[in-house]
Amino acid sequence: MVAYQFKFAKVLTIREQEKSETELAYKESVSIFEKVATELYNLLKKKEDTVDTQNNLLVSGLSIDNIHHYSSYIEGLQKRIDVVQKEVIQARSKMNWMEEKLLDKSLEVKKFEKIKEKGFEQFQQEQQRLETIQLDEISSLKFQNKEIR
């Protein structure tokens, strides 16, 4: 019996490698997004806490220097928040792009796997057909040998 050989085996191997590399890149982009998004969350939380503290201190009385200090601090936080928000947008875009790329690579691998599956089915049917022909020939030969005796 002949072993089945998939004619696109090398292509399938390359596509699977590309898919694996894309998966790693996607996971890395998700990790970067989570890191930057967490930083943004922490900055927003810090700003919110600082504004609450400032408002509480304003009710009980706060010096001009302290008001100026809090305002400068909040302004600095806001500048950092603006920068990190841009980083979050970029990280999200890259993550989404990598997700689409991973989806494309997965579909491509599935196409080749489907082709391989159909090719193997055809190979099995052909092997079955050849086996049937051989059995028929053997039966005919046995029958002819019986008639000759």
**What are the segments in which pLDDT stays under 50 over at least 5 consecutive residues?**
none
Q: N-to-C SSE series?
A: HH
Q: Helix coverage percent of residues? A: over 70%
Number of helical regions: 2
Strand content: under 5%
Got a strand count?
0
Shape, per Cα inertia axes? rod-shaped
- Please state the structural category: mainly alpha
Instruction: Supply Rg.
Output: 35 Å
**Averaged pLDDT:** 95
Tell me the major beta sheet.
none
Distance N terminus to C terminus? 33 Å
Question: How would you characterize the overall build of this protein?
Answer:
The chain is built from two helices and no strands. It is an all-alpha fold and 149 residues long. Helix 1 packs antiparallel against helix 2 (64-148). The protein is rod-shaped and about 125 Å long. The mean pLDDT is 95.
